[in-house]
Amino acid sequence: MKGYLLDLDFGRWETLLLSILPSLVNIGIFFYVSIKLPQNRTNFSFSAFVLLGGLWQLCDGFVHLSISPETALEWYRMEVVFSLFVVPYGVLFTLSSSRWYKKVSNSLIFIVQFLPAIICLMLVLTRQDQYLISTSFHWFWIVNPKPTMATFFIYSWLALNTLIMLGLLWANFVKSNESQRNQSLLLAVGFTLPVIGGIMAEAIFPLVFNLDYLPITTPLITTFTIASFLAIKNNNLLDYSPRHQWGQIIESMNEGILIVDMEGRVMYANNMFCELLEYGFDEIKGEIAHELLIEDLEQRKYLENVIIERALGHSSQYELLLKTKSGKKVWFIINGTPYKDRRGKVIGSIGMHTNIDASKRAEARFKAIVENVGDIISLSDKDGNVIYDSPAIEKITGYSAEEMKGQPIYELMHPEQIDEAKVILRKVLDNPGVPYTRINRFRHKNGHYVWVEGMVTNLLENADVNAIVSSYHDVTERREAEQKIIQKDERLTAILDNEPECVKVVDLNGNLLEMNPAGLKMIEADSAAMVLGKNVIGLVYEEDKLLYQELHNRICKGETGTADFRIISLKGTQRWMESNSVPLKNAEGEIYATLSVARDITEIKKKSDELIGIKNRLEYSESRLKQAQAIARVGSWEYSLADNIALWSDEACRIFGLSSNENHLSIQEWLRYIHPDDLNNVVREIRNARATYRASSIQHRIVRKDGEVRFINSESRYDYDNEGKPIGLYGVVHDVTEEKLAELKLKNLLNVTNDQNNRLQNFAYIVSHNIRSHSANIIGIVNIFDKEKNENEKEKLFRMLQTSTNKLTETIENLNDIITIQNSTEMQKIRLNLRDEIEKTRHAINSILLGANAKFENLVPDNITVRFVPSYLESILLNVLTNAIKYRSAERELEIVVTVENLNDFILLSIKDNGLGIDLKKNREKIFGMYKTFHNNKDARGFGLYITKNQLEALGGKIEVESEFGKGSTFKIYINEEN
Description:
By secondary structure, the chain is α+β, with helices and mostly antiparallel strands. The protein is built from 32 helices and 30 strands. A six-stranded antiparallel sheet has the order 20-19-18-23-22-21, sandwiched between helices. A five-stranded antiparallel sheet has the order 4-3-7-6-5. A five-stranded antiparallel sheet has the order 9-8-12-11-10, with helices on both faces. Helix 3 packs antiparallel against helix 8 (217-235) and helix 30 runs antiparallel to helix 32. The longest helix is centred in the C-terminal third of the chain and has 51 residues, at 737-787.
């Protein structure tokens, strides 16, 4: 195989020059790029493209150096293999160099570029591609693909990708900025030359000008490689050093970069800037930045001055509040520098925008808190000199923050406290981060002293603070109050001794320190000595000890509180106490005890328990009332004339289909639930009752929210005040739906019974009349027959007897059919296709229809079905249709049209004809009677419509007729599927 592939003639200098030499150039560029440049996506794509291109060119040269056509064919197949991956890597290189790869996912590139290449590779390796080899005077062998499916797919895919790459290169040139335009043009022209040159030399020249084939497509690929190499050397296309890759660096920064021209119009913004301001670059490009992004007029004027500074070549840093696309305001710190062209002329400004919104707002919040809080916040250096004082300093001491700045804090203190303050300062300096509580006296600007209490903490080592932090609040009033308490101790003691409530002082451990005489009396102690020093919790009822202890703990922490608990006196008496407790503090502000004032609420608790019992009983009674209303389905309501609102009980709400929280309704809202057919009657009854203030009782229907109709019986009475004036109404609503439905059902049953009685009377009449007539006739004939001697006459009488007997038999059979219908309502009903059943009947009487020359139209759709007894439906259709044929008009051609309509409760089947018609003014009441005929047809029995009516009514349906004498009839058959 090796010798077979090396069957080459290296003496052909044209081939060596056109193919081998360009391939060596490509391979050399591959080694340069791989060794000299860092490895990255773009560099790797270009390296792979150059290497595969060089191998492609080398294989192409070996095709033309081959001595035998077999060797040329093998090298050509290897050339195709390399070409399958040259173009995909070229597309990948184009996307990477133009930064369009960010818009295209790796999975899409693989599916669109490399997956088809792999499929084509498999076609080549499995020899699915076919080629035609011909000889050339200069180039020895020319290989052309045969038009097979495999070769068509391979070369179509290569051509398509070549056009894609060509389009991407020129599109990159069109969209490139000034700094990228030269390299973009170089790449686009470099790839266009092999495409156009190859088409000219290998297609147009041989086909149009009959010139010899010139294989220069593959060698011309080197022009693109060289163009790319020049872009690398001159324009730093693939050099990813910081100097030449500002674009990628800027796009990867966390700061927003904005470049504007001297008018402030946006020239460039990186992705981070666009994300921070919520704009796409296309939306802000060309816009005046400070007009779009800044609302504050002062900041706009400041920006105009900044632009002037940029023109002078000055840089600056400043803070701005910018408006995002959604209207949100964001603080940025901006480092701005002049933007210069290659000649050093300032053409705009570059701004690096750092989002400081969180810190700015935190600063604003902190400043607002510090400046508005009532406490003095002070920062001082290690020597105690003031760096900063919050505005509260002036409110408390009269000195402004500016007056205090730089002054030693000792200047404010009372002379007696200065030495102590200096000792505290040394402790603070020796213990960073440890807070020290202080009570000081500060000299007011007016000359008097104020008491302040606060904390001092050394935060000099905190880089963000670098100061001693002090916070003080004014406690002058409290200190003065404490002094007054001390001064009035004797007076207070006298008061406590005579105070009727229990007053006690308890230390932090719960031990009793003091208790007034009233308290001692409540706990039934003969003297204070019996309880002083003992823990008070021992007097608390066992179940309330936890409650008392929690209250005591809260007071010890500085809170105030109240609690109700039980105590057991020294003599076993149980009392309820209501205790109000506060903390007691010493001169330094430290809590040392709790003070409680407690009163005996035992009697109040008893009354409260009685009230709770009454309340529970009322709630129980109300609950039982609700249960009783629910069982009886009776709701109650109260209506106020003053505010036009009715308060409904839960059961009243349930009857109307409302939730219990919808129990406040105006009369207008209530009327909306009244059935429309009953509304006028209800309104009339309300007006009549209101006119005379009389009680009323109304039975009506309501329509609930869910559409259900209920029958209601409403009764109401007027309510009067002490002066006899009506102030409202109260009443009940009773749900009588079940009773009403039962009443309606009974009424329907009575109607059915009456109908059955009528039928029974009719049947009895038929039996008594028809059978008696036939039997009387037979008896008369028999009597004559016995007396007759003439044989001929006897023969006539016998035939008459035979005829009467047949008539009697027919009558009995008809009566039997009627009885069968009335007793067969439970016959099995099945689902029948109505159109099919009509067609079956039509076929059954087809000969009659043809004999009558009748036109029959069945307009019933295919999808209409009914649940019916099959034999009944067949009988009904036969009776109605044969009647239409039997009573047709001799003056016109018979037309029968069958239609159907879906009503709410019935399927309506209409059979219309243009026959003789019936005079309904005379015959409407007897048209469906037994043996009723309306024309002189000899074969008319008057029994078919009677049977049809009975069959339909037995199954819950009915039949009606519309007819005009001389014009025709329409029989309407109502089929009830449910009954």
